[in-house]
Fold this sequence. Notes:
Blueprint: H1 3-25, H2 35-52, H3 59-67, H4 71-76, H5 80-99, H6 102-183, H7 191-218, E1 227-230, H8 231-241, H9 243-248, E2 252-255, E3 264-267, H10 269-285, E4 292-300, E5 303-310, H11 317-320, H12 351-361, E6 365-370, E7 381-388, H13 396-406, H14 413-417
Parallel strand pairs: 2-4
Antiparallel strand pairs: 1-3, 4-5, 5-7, 6-7
Helix pairs in contact: 1-2, 1-5, 1-6, 3-6, 5-6, 6-7, 7-12, 10-12
The structure holds adenosine-5'-diphosphate.
Residues 278, 282-283, 286, 310, 312-313, 315, 323, 329, 346-353, 381 line the site of adenosine-5'-diphosphate (ADP).
Amino acid sequence: MSPSNVQVDFAxxxxxxxxxxxxxxxxxxxxxxxxxxxxxxxYDLLEQALVTGxxxxxxxVIFDWVNANTQTDIAExxxxxxxxxxxxxxxxxxxxxxxxxxxxxxxxxxxxxxIFTYALDKxxxxxxxxxxxxxxxxxxxxQQKLEKLDRSKSNFISVAAHELKTPLTLIEGYTSMxxxxxxxxxxxxxxxxxxxxxxxxxxxxxxxxxMIDVSLIDNNMLxxxxxxxxxxxxxxxxxxxxxxxxxxRRLNLETRKFPGSQEWLYADPExxxxxxxxxxxxxxxxxxxxxxxxxxxxxxxxxxEVTIADTGIGISPEDQAVIFEKFGQLxxxxxxSSSKVKFKGGGPGLGLSxxxxxxxxxxxTIWVESEGCDEEKCPGSxxxxxxxxxxxxxxxxxxxxxxxxxxxxxxxxxxxTRTDPPPA
Length: 424
Ligand code: ADP
């Protein structure tokens, strides 16, 4: 039989082939949009390959099918193009046997077999090449991540060393002054010197505590001591405790009463205090003297959202992507200062990562909005904290109390938490 006879037979079964393929593959894996037109194209090219005896006619369609594999397909080792070609070959055999006489069917199968063998080999090779390229990329990106981690770690060591050295120098200075003072015959008041030593020790403790917190968060070991609390109480306490600093820096801190701030939350008061203190300390640090910080919020279904907006220098979009990562903002040892609240006095770069760890441990989330960093125009930054209203505690007694307290007939929250003076 000449190729043209096979071609004639092929034309006879082509419609049925496409129909069968559509039936078999309509819901199968690897089926893409416009599948019918893709099949038409495949059989056009298969026909050309039959006529010319050159299977390379199928290259274009094989290439397209291989490249239609998604990154997930490649990662999972799915060989969609090879599988599809295998199915099409089986269907061609089936339909040829059903629709042609024995001799014609045998000729047809003999003619298409080398073309499919070529196509399968080509698809398998291309799919393997894609997989190799995918893993090479993965290895490069892991390498880049490791390099970044390595850089972060050396940065961390240099900044941590700087951070630890500052209070140590302070302690050293004060203790040597105390030594001199105790050797002097005149009676000296040691109080200011002792206070200096204490400040240094407190700062050291804070840095070491931050490091411990980061490691607890990293190892998913941050345990919460949750209890019912009012956000308004926590925020009022912060406002009170930061009063002196605000005065020193001539900043105005306004804590608003917002919907949700006077509803019971089930959370760890110490950890939440720490998280909000970090955010407020940052707002103080990055806002020039005379600026303002507003704490506000609202309720959302199932959540309370707290916002901390400052009129500070703002945060560039690139930095917004990294500041919540630990060691994200390291490398400026020159900015690092022993003062927690000095304008732009950087810290060890762990505060926001600890804050995020605490908020996430509560089932919440945190993000920042800022138009960018500009020390002249001061566009400001707004940190958003979303916390779930947990109405259930693992302790049934607390859960009961908690439920009762949030009921309208429970304790009068409004009355209990009123901090503004009564109307004259
Ligand atoms: P640090 O100890 O350096 O303050 P944080 O983790 O608390 O570390 O903050 C990381 C970085 O995020 C800071 O170094 C600063 O660049 C940026 N940042 C945080 N809060 C603010 C803010 N309110 N305004 C401007 N920049 C901020």
